[in-house]
Structure formats: C-alpha cells, structure tokens
Amino acid sequence: MKSISNRFYLDYNATSPLAESVQDWISKGDFSFGNPSSAHQTGKKAKKLINETREYLYSLFDVKEDDFHLFFHSGASEGINTLVRGFFLNAFKNQKQADYYFFDTDHSCVVNQREEIKAFGHDFYPFPVDELGMPKIDQIKKGKHSCGLLNFTWVNNESGVVWPLYKALEFKEKLGCAVHVDSVQSVGKIRDWNKLESDLDAYTFSAHKFGGMKGIGFSFMKKDFPYECFVRGGGQQAALRSGTENVMGIYSIKLALEDLQRNQNFDETEFVHREFESWLLSKIGDKGKIAGYGNVSRNMTTTYLVLPGNRSDIMMTALDLAGVEVSAGSACSSGILKPSRILKGMGFSEKEAGEGIRFSFSPTFTKEDLPALFEKLDKVLSKYL
Ligand SMILES: Cc1ncc(COP(=O)(O)O)c(C=O)c1O
User: Fold this and answer.
1) Binding site membership of 182 for ligand 1 (Cβ less than 6 Å)
2) pTM exceeds 0.85, yes or no
3) Which of 168, 191, 211, 309 has a beta carbon 3.0–4.6 Å from 256's, enabling a disulfide?
4) What is the mean pLDDT of residues 182-202?
C-alpha cells in the first residue's frame, strides 16, 4: 500500500522516499565513517563499500570497466554539468570549436548551460519535438564544426515520453558527435532501464529518483570521452571528480537498486497505469488532455494532465488538501510556477502550459491503492470539469 497516512504521494519523478533497505541500514547506524582515501582499517572499510557499489553497478548495467569510467557526484545536475562542461573545456583547451546539441524538452541542467558554452566560443543547437514529445527528425541538422556533443533524454521527466536508445545511435551517426544520455528518469520506470548501449558515450543517474539518498549520483563515461575534470582537488576517483567520497550515499545506491530489482513488477505497474489513465480519461472527457497520449513510447509511471481553464498551482493545492501530492511539472526551487517548457515544446499554448498537473507513480504502486485514489481524485477533479 503506497498511501502514507491516507495520503498519496504521486510525485516520484521529483523524488522518491528512501528504499526500505536504505532505511534499515541507516537505522542500524553501522556506518563506515572513515575517509576512503585513508590507509588504515577504518578508511579501508569505507573504501570497501565504494568498491562493492562500483562492482555492482558495472555488473547491473553490463558495462565493461575497460570501456567506461564510473564516477560518483552529488547528483545529476552536477554530473551533467561536469560532463558537458568537461567536454567543451577540453575542446577549448585543444583550440577547437564544438557544437552543443540538445532538445527543447531536456531538463534545465542541460538547457541552462548553453550560454556558458557559447561564452567559450562554441555553438549550441536546440532541437524541437513534435506534439507526441518525439524528436522532429527532419530538423536534426549538423552544426558547423566537426566536433560536438548531444544530450539525449531517455525518459522525459514531465511527459514520461521514452526515446529508445537506438534513436540516440542514429543521431550520433547523423551528427557525427558524442552522445550523453540523461538516464535520470529511466530507472524502474521502463522495462529495459539497465540495458545500456555501449556505443553511446556517457550516462548519468541520480540516486534520489530510485530510493537512494539525495545528493548522490553517478555517471558512466567512455574512456575516450574528451573530458577535462571540472571539480579539481585531491584527485579522488581517478581525478575524474575530486572530493572525499560520500560513502553512505554511494552505498545507498547499491541498496536501493537491489531493493528495486527485488520488488519491481512491470506487469503490475503497467496495469495500474493503464487503469489510472482510462479512469482519468473517462472522468475528464473532452475537458482536458494527457500530454503525449497516443504515443506508444511513454513510460508506465507518468501522466501529465492538462485541464484548460484551470491553473496548475490551484489544482495542485486542492489535490494536496485532499491528500494527493502531485506537481505542475518539474520541481521548481523558487516555488514559483512557470508555464512548462516541456508542454510548450509539445505544442501547448503558453496559457495551457500553466494548466498541467503531473502524476508520477512509484514503480511499486499496486492496484489495491487505486479505489481510494479514485475516490479522492473524483471529489477534486469534479470541481474543475
Ligand atoms: C531528466 C532529469 N535530468 C536531470 C535531473 C537533475 O537531477 P538531480 O536532482 O539529481 O540534480 C532531473 C531531476 O529532476 C531530471 O528529472
């Protein structure tokens, strides 16, 4: 049962609660507090937890240590900034200009680097998507330079639209560039979340999206990826990202992913999502729309509902009071809601882009939870229809 104190937390794309195994581990208080770079037993104990996690991740994602580096950072915003800036700084140092490719619907940690990249003398190219949230293939055009980096978002955080990795391979070929895959929203939310393409160049994940701790994430990066280290210091993690490692956070990644592997039931998740959307569609009739509906390539946990004529923040507050926690789209640090860039990218008007609410389910939400959820939703949505 995923309702906590008779409340439904349906904002898993923003963040997830700690996995039970992580909570148990924390409550035991049996931590290795040592500095993993220290040569004594206490330091070695901490290092062992990092090494166990590294081995587990290489094996889980079937990635070869000979081909890819693996490094930990404070989460995907840092990881993606590090990889993108590392790439363009490397080009700059080698007196090369390069092209930064991304999509209008990418996360702000991808998009908001564009001006900085330009300040280093490079160019950027934002590509559009269609109304189903898929890339507009005919508008994907090579930039001026022979060197470039594309960000490819595997699962969109707002719409839940999934871009299969073979498309990233096609774009890589067409643009002749390196590809970084923003993999933050894939874990547990699509069936093949641990099947990476070894011909793509880098992948970034964030632990708080799948039951690990906040402030920790990891990236796989091809060994020949042009990269200048961004966080410099004592040379930890093979000098890819300096700083004393967040050992507890790192180990929470392993515990949370093991938990997910044990508990996920994709058939159930898919069933719940289908039931939820068919209930929602029959409730809203022609008064609203689910973004990207009709696209067969959407994930099993996200539904972005647009109800024209109703402001997102007002609907969210009413749902919150009724015990259903959702968001307007991506979590916003200022608390001030702006029209969704993702909805606009998918062809919704400026006004409609401020009239969406995103339901994002836990991959372990069960069908037993649905009747109570429908009862709560029914009362609130009826006011807006
Ligand atoms: C697709 C995507 N990329 C990147 C991020 C940034 O992740 P973090 O919160 O770990 O910085 C998020 C977080 O919402 C996301 O959904």
Assistant:
1) yes
2) yes
3) 211
4) 97
